[in-house]
Amino acid sequence: LFQTTRNATLAPKTEPIRTIQQQTFKEGRDLGLVAPPSTVNPTTGNKMMESLSGKVATQQAAASRNAPKVDDIARQALGLDKNVPLTKQTLKAVRDEAGKVYGKVASSGTIRADNQYIDDLAALTQGIDNTSFPKANVAARKEVSEVIDSLTEGEFKAADALKMVRHLRKESTTLYTQAKMSGGDPAKEALAMAKRDGGAALEEMIMRHLRANGQDDVASAFDAARQTIAKSYTVESALNPATGHVVGNLLGAQLKKGKPLSGDLRKVAEFSRAFPKAMEEVKSSPVSALDALVAGAGGYAINPALYAWPAARVGA
User: Fold this and answer.
1) Whose CB among 81, 140, 223, 289 lies 3.0–4.6 Å from 187's, allowing a Cys bridge?
2) pLDDT, tens digit, for every residue of 105-155?
3) What is the reported pTM?
4) Are 314 and 307 contacting, i.e. CB atoms less than 8 angstroms apart?
5) Are 140 and 164 in contact (CB under 8 A)?
6) DSSP of the chain, one letter per residue?
7) How far is CA 149 from CA 92, 101, 110, 198, in A?
8) Which residue in 17, 20, 52, 18 sits closest to 38, CA to CA?
9) Helix 55-78 to helix 44-53 angle, to the nearest 10 degrees?
10) What confidence tens digit (pLDDT) does each residue in 146-168 have?
11) Minimal CA–CA distance to 139: which of 179, 91, 174, 107?
12) Between vectors from CA 236 to CA 230 and to CA 239, what angle results, nearest 5°?
């Protein structure tokens, strides 16, 4: 009995099992993000406190605290100093700096496609193949096949490959925008994803070509540059140029559409999907209807003790 008790006493403590939402919250909290307590831990006390403070006001308080954190996370992802303003011009400058290595890549000669490249292109039709109805243009299957055919070449110049990557990335962004404006066109979204992934397959082929020719340093620099450039477009798509803020919910929307976010930007997007109200863009400060009613009736002048009500709400 003593041995059993002793073993139980010395047994290592285990971490409590977290739900997916709790794990998402923990990762966001590690980045400095916050969420209304009742959405994470819906205890009676938290619900009562939020009832006193006002649900909308609490959500906007969280969103106001998160906004500068999201901006800082975006700057860190792009290697920018904390005080650098987030503008389209800034993001273009980031891309121009990262793209300086592209000159070395462009002059690296002729690329010969390998089996991995062919397999990567074939994978673009995953999820839209329909063998029972091969003539049906399901999810832009015909257009996706045309993208694959346009990229299926035995060899090509590195400079031309870079131009094609830029072309595919630009067309992908345009299609995503069109799909969004049309309320989520699945065909446009499927084609946008195919062009994006086709460009990625081409970039991977370029890197294998560089390494095969002993240009590991150029390959590493190219890999870092393309990631930085991709992040800059992710940030730009979530940027409100009128305020200079990166909107967390717009990062979440990109993740929902299947954009390959990574690192801390992905954690922000996941946090936004889990706690959307805490990641909204704050454009106004709501006034409590009860506060407005009391003030309009001259309640504060009648009874100064009523000042305690808004003070209690703000404190809560």
Assistant:
1) 140
2) 999 999 999 999 999 998 887 766 555 556 666 667 788 888 999 999 999
3) 0.72
4) no
5) no
6) -HHHHHHHHHSPPPPPPPPHHHHHHHHHHHTT----HHHHS--HHHHHHHHHH-HHHHHHHHHHHHHHHHHHHHHHHHT--TTS---HHHHHHHHHHHGGGHHHHHTS-EEE--HHHHHHHHGGGTTT--TTSTTS-GGGHHHHHHHHHHH--SEEEHHHHHHHHHHHHHHHHHHHHHHHHTT--HHHHHHHHHHHHHHHHHHHHHHHHHHHTT-HHHHHHHHHHHHHHHHHHHHHHTEETTTTEE-HHHHHHHHHTT----HHHHHHHHHHHHSGGGGSPP------HHHHHHHHTTHHHH-GGGGHHHHHHHH-
7) 31, 28, 19, 11
8) 52
9) 100
10) 899 999 999 999 999 999 998 99
11) 179
12) 145
Q: Cα–Cα distance between 181 and 170 in angstroms, integer?
A: 17
Q: Which residue has the tokens 């930007």?
A: 265
- The structure tokens listed for 194 are 């195919």
Q: Which two tokens stand for residue 297?
A: 């009736």
Find where tokens 């863009």 sit: 281
